[in-house]
Structure formats: C-alpha cells, structure tokens
Amino acid sequence: MNTPLRISLTGACPMPIPAAxxxxxxxxxxxxxxxxALMILPLFLVLALPxxxxxxxxxxxxxGTGGPTGVYYPxxxxxxxxxxxxxxxxxxxxxxxxxxxxxxGVAQYSxxxxxxxxxxxxxxxxxxxxxxxxxxxxxxxxxxxxxxPSGRSVRAVASLYPEMFQLVTRRDAxxxxxxxxxxxxxAIDEPGSGTLxxxxxxxxxxxxxxxxxxxxxxxxxxTHDKMAQNEIQGFAMMAGAPMEAVTQLSDIGLFLxxxxxxxxxxxxxxxxxxxxxxxxxxxxxxxxxxxxxxxYALLVVSADISEDLVYQVTSALWSERTLSLLKRGxxxxxxxxxxxALTGLSIPLHAGAERFYREKELLLKGTLSP
Length: 370
What we know:
By secondary structure, the protein is α/β, with parallel strands linked by helices. The chain has helices at 25-33, 35-48, 72-84, 113-121, 132-140, 195-205, 224-228, 244-247, 261-270, 307-317, 320-327, 351-359; strands spanning 5-6, 57-64, 103-108, 127-131, 154-170, 185-187, 214-216, 234-239, 254-256, 275-279, 290-302. Strands 1, 2, 3, 4, 5, 6, 7, 8, 9, 10 and 11 form an eleven-stranded mixed beta sheet that branches. Helix 3 (72-84) runs antiparallel to helix 11 (320-327) and helix 10 (307-317) packs across helix 12. The longest helix has 14 residues, at 35-48.
C-alpha cells in the first residue's frame, strides 16, 4: 500500500533527483548484489528534501522498469521525470516540484514484467511497466502466477506502446527459423522477466523446449560481449523496437528470426494478448521486415493505492510536458498517446485512472474497470 511521507521542513526549493547513470555490463552483477540496499536510497533522498510548502505530503512514486539496454528503463525514467517536474515550469521556480501535490518519480531497474507485478502488488514499488499478457496472468492467477491470488489487485493506468518479440541471432550462426536454435547457445532472459515465458510459448509452438539448445538466463545487457565474441549465438527480448541491445551489435551482422503468421495466429488463439505483429524494414540496419509477436506495454499499479494519487499520476502522464519528454526519448515514446491509452488493456483500470479517462471522455465502451 502506498504510504505518503509527510515533510514539514520549509525553506528552499527541493534539490533535483540526479538522473540514474547507465551501468557498464561488467558492473551489473555487482549492482544486482547490492540492489536491495540501493532501493532504500530514494527514501533517504526524499527524507532529505525540504517541502515546497510546509506540511505538504510528498509521495515517492517508484516505477519498476527493466534492464538498462531495454526500452522499459528509458521510458520509465522519462515518465518519472514527467511526474516529478511541473507541467508548466513557469508556474514554479522549483524544477523538482510537481504541479500536483508532491509526487517524486523514481525509475528503478528490475528483471522485468513478472518481477514488476509482484513488487507492485506487494507494495515494494508503486507502479511498474508490464506486458499486457503478464498482467492478465497475474489478474487471473494463471501461468507464472498460478496459485497466487495476490495478482488480483493489479490495475492499469494506461497502455503505452506495442512490444515486439525479438529473437536476435548472429547472421553467421545460420539460424533462420526457431527450429534452427537446436545446438546453439541462446540467452532467453532471466526469471522474473516477461520475455522468458513468451520464449517458452514460442518454443512450444515450434515443438521445442529448452532441452533442445543451450539456454543462458541473462538479460540483454549481459549479452553484448558474449554475442560479439560468439560465446552465445543469440538472445531473446520482448521489447519495443528498436532497442539499444540490438543497435549496439549491428556491426557484427545480425538476423531477426521470424515467427510465421500461422504459428503466431495459433499462439494468439491460446494467449489472446500475444498477437501477430511485425518489425518493419529499416528499424534495424540491414534487417528486412520480420513477422513476429507483439503485446502492449502497460503502466500498472495496485488497487490499494489511493484514487486521488492515481488520478494525479494519470493526469501528469498525459500532460503536455510528459508527452514532450517522451517524444524526445526512445522511438517508442512517440507512440505513447492518449488516443491509444486504452488499447490492448488486459486488466481493469484503477479507479483513479478511470475517473481521469471519464472526465476527458476517453473511456471506450467495454473497457474493463475495477
């Protein structure tokens, strides 16, 4: 449950929260080992901040994202910045004061969708970026969440952009279909990610399992050097396209393994939020249009968070300032728009988000609600 921090200090404007730095891959394992301690740091930062007004409630709004070379983290960081800074900076000389009452957004690295859902419903974080299919599994207590009813409390704030299943291989590995994975070393992401269960679904659709190749449980941030040195022949990722983990490797020669339309349609019949999609030619250098699977990325919270706070967050998300920040960020930021805020939702809206969309007359007939 979200617990506001009441800050009674007066005086100068709050100090800005420093932007998180990208972590070199060789340090990532060290970062993960001290991750719990690092997550306490934002709390101390907030406690150290003077309030913009005496007695004002400051809400620390932590957003679970993914690894640093995916898309969740840069998108989550921009959303956090949009929640923290004012919609109109002319309204306040304090760059870190939200136009609505005291929200401080913080983007946090994570394993991905499954970990984000679990952290949201347990109250460890306030929000998370989550694949629509994973959100549905949590809400229905299915698949990765089988036997765990806590996911029933997950609620949507917005649909953001479509994510593509990307099975990226070295061109010289001659892996031209999923069946060609046999005998190769392939990174399939780590437990807690949204990629891993989708990879297993894809393997099953082609009559394969992890025993047919050499699976490596690493996030793409760890795979750059291993791909470059041919220690692994490919990696899988469910993410917006383009993603940095792929573009950084373009000089070694890459291939995107297609998911043919018949197989994709068969997967959709079993998993409704995984639908046929395609990565267009030109998204990545020297890679042609490739059929694959797609799913929408959602911003989710717990039903336990107050309606007023989620209403403020939803308003800030769709403010001109946040949208402007997103448009200047990764290419996926340009796809985030109020017109598609309810597209591909797989779980109920939070009451605060629903209130915002009703007021703006954006709520579509048939949209799920709590």
